[in-house]
Every structure is written in structure tokens, then in C-alpha cells.
Amino acid sequence: MDEALCREHIAKARAELERSNVDVLYVSSGANNLYFTGASLGPSDRVVALLLTRDGEPPVIVPGFEGNRIRHAVHVGEVVTWEEHENPFALIGDVLRKKRLASGRIALDGETWYWVVEGLRKALPKAEFINGEPLVNRCRMCKNERELAFMEEACGITGKALMNAIAEFREGMTETQFAEVIAAKYREQGHHSGSLVQSGPRASDPHIPTGDRPIVSGDAVVLDSGCQVEGFCSDVSRTLMIGNISKEIRKAWTVLKDAQQAALDAIRPGATCESIDAVARGWLTKHGYGKYFVHRLGHGIGLAGHEYPYLVGGNKLPLEPGITTTVEPGIYVPGEFGMRIEDVMTVTDDGCRVLSHTMPRDTFWSA
């Protein structure tokens, strides 16, 4: 991520500060700091923070021994250091007093730990602290064309890795062995990533770790994988069918494919997040699989694999162009089989565009 993109992100945040009547956005380590500075600064048990104000070069507070490294890593910000024997919260208080913001409204991002909040309150007793997560979410949830291009490239790398791995699958491989094949296909493209491989009855538990079960004829195998380009993520799932597949599994897969397509067809600006979840859930329920769809339809994706917003019941947020999420209905019949089809999409002016298009989603993948 380059300086121009970071400056654009900061401008979005400053507009939100004005709109929300907030003086300072306290940004902790992690994806939020990457979003605004271009550098991943933690998380750490030592205080690392960006103090984003309405004007000027934002201070980046870091431990002294990290100063030189971080000065070379960040694209924006004035690096201010504290030593191990010093109180970093006192330093933050001094920085904000110089800016005449020590008694202002300070929004804390959602990654801020409680012990940090306590330290800030002691150092800035006259400040008003508020939840800054909604402010950051409004900045990050809509992607621009450059960010979408990074995500589309990441999805393309993931699709190629999965397709190339499927071509080398051999019955009897364990889940772990097949995951290693997928990892090798990423390395061939100059990338590194882990993948979730779940086969047969084990796939009926959506988050069960990859194990040592041999993959055999009759199995439906969930492959869930992703990588990053310039920090922006992909997240793609496909269900691989091995050998002689039962009519029930074939039927379930067709219903699942159609449920995902119905949800994608329903996406447009103004539609709520919960309404898209309801479309897929309604389709699965109509065909007898509703009780086997046990998670939300999708999650936002960007610099984090899971981020705001979520396609889930109760989320009445209207979609708008640039919002980017997964759409991943699943069917999980306990003790029998599981399956999922997952793609990354972005909302457009009149619908949506699938970014993970290099690996067809309406193909019955088999080996």
C-alpha cells in the first residue's frame, strides 16, 4: 500500500471526524494502523498508536527501539518515541496538550485493549472517550478501484492455487497432505497461505481444523483458502466431490449453488445486509436444508479476512457501492457431510460484481 492510498484513507477519516464532532481518532496496532499508515504495527504489549486529528501530520507513538524501523515502514505520520522506563500514556497526553486537544472528544478504535483505555483516562482526565469503531467501519467498508483490484488479484491467485491443486489430487490423500499441495501451488505463484480442508463427515463442522483423515470416494470436501495482495485479502471456498457421490450430496450441492446465485442476484444499493442473508436462507429452507445452514451468509473483507459489515439477520445496514463482502451459504448435515460455496463480491451501482471469478462457482468440482 503506497502513500497516496494512505492519504486517501486519512482524508476519509478526517471527514468522519468532522461529521461526528470528534477531535482525535486513537488507532491501535493491527489492520487499522495498516489502513492509515501503510505499516502493520503490532499488536504488541507495548503501546503503539496513531493519533489521527483533523489536520497536520498525525503522530505515530511507538517504543524507542522500534523508531527507526517504523520510520522506514510508515508512509505517513510523524513518529514519536517513548523509552522503556517512560509512561507512554503521559507522552500521548503531552502530544495532545500541545495540539490543545487534551480535553477533546477522543474516539478509540475497536482494537484498543482495556488496559490501554485505563491508561489514557488517567493521562487525559478531561477528555471524553467514545467508541470509534463505527467511524473506522465507515472508512474501511467501501473500497475504491485500486483496493478492489488488489482483492481481485488475490482472488485470482487463490483460484489458480485451488484449481492446480485439484488437478493433482489423488484419492487416499489426507486432509493435511492435500492442504500442503494447495500451499505449494501458492508458493509457485510467489505467495504463502494456509487452507482449510475438511472431508466427509468432518466437513459437517464448519470450523473444524484440517486433520489427518484420508479423503475417499463418496466424500464432499470443503476447501477454504485465501491470500493477500498489498495487504488486501481473498477468501474463496469450493466443495470438491470425490469419486462416487451420492444423489443426496449432488442434490444438496445444486440447491446450495442456486441459493448463492439467488443472493448475488438480490444484491443492489439500498438492499439491507439482513435481506441478502434472508434470500439465501429462504431458498435453502424452501428446499429442506434451512436448518443445516448454521452461520451468517457473509462477512466484510479487506485488510482483514473478516471485517464490517456482515450479511446476517438483524443487520439493517443498506448496501452501497464499494461495500465488499463474501457470500458463502453452506449446508452442514451433522455426522454425514458438509459443503460451502464462497465468493468475494463488491456492490456496484446496479448490482454486484464477483471478484473471485477465476474459479467458476457453478461447476461441480470433482476428482
Q: What is the strand tally? A: 18
Per DSSP, what share of the residues sits in E-state strands of 2 or more residues? 15-25%
The oligomeric status of these chains comes to: single chain
Give the domain tally: 2
Widest sheet: strand ordering = 4-3-2-1-5-6
What is the CATH domain class of the largest domain? Alpha Beta
| Structural category | alpha+beta
Q: What is the CATH-assigned architecture of the largest domain?
A: Alpha-Beta Complex
Order of helices and strands: HEHEEHEHEHEHHHEEEEEHHEEEEEEE
**If helices are DSSP runs of H or I spanning 4 or more residues, what is the number of helices?**
10
- Overall geometry comes to elongated
Q: How are the elements arranged and paired?
A:
Blueprint: H1 3-20, E1 24-27, H2 31-37, E2 49-53, E3 59-63, H3 67-73, E4 78-82, H4 88-98, E5 105-108, H5 114-123, E6 128-131, H6 133-140, H7 145-167, H8 175-187, E7 195-199, E8 220-225, E9 228-229, E10 232-233, E11 236-241, H9 247-266, H10 273-286, E12 298-300, E13 307-311, E14 324-327, E15 330-333, E16 337-340, E17 343-347, E18 352-354
Parallel strand pairs: 1-5, 3-4, 5-6
Antiparallel strand pairs: 1-2, 2-3, 7-8, 8-11, 9-10, 12-13, 14-17, 15-16, 17-18
